[in-house]
Amino acid sequence: MGATVELCRPLRYLKTADPMPMLRPPDLVDPGEVGTVTAIRMMGQVTVRFRRGSFLIASDDLKICGPSEALR
Predict the structure, then answer these.
(1) Among residues 7, 49, 14, which one has the least CA distance to residue 30?
(2) How far is CA 17 from the centre of its chain?
(3) Cα–Cα distance between 48 and 54 in angstroms, integer?
(4) pTM of the model as a whole
């Protein structure tokens, strides 16, 4: 938790990290956008806080950023 991550590839949809998750359009988060991991969930999913909200994303679709990449 607290790691800075980057979205590797465009997703077909985003799933909110709310108590009652909703599907959202994929254009809320751009590929390459940097976010912060706020929770680790079951089945390889993590909650990531981006500038437009928190979303559940598979860990396979993310890569860890170094300190210089987080400043973008």
Answers:
(1) 7
(2) 10
(3) 5
(4) 0.84
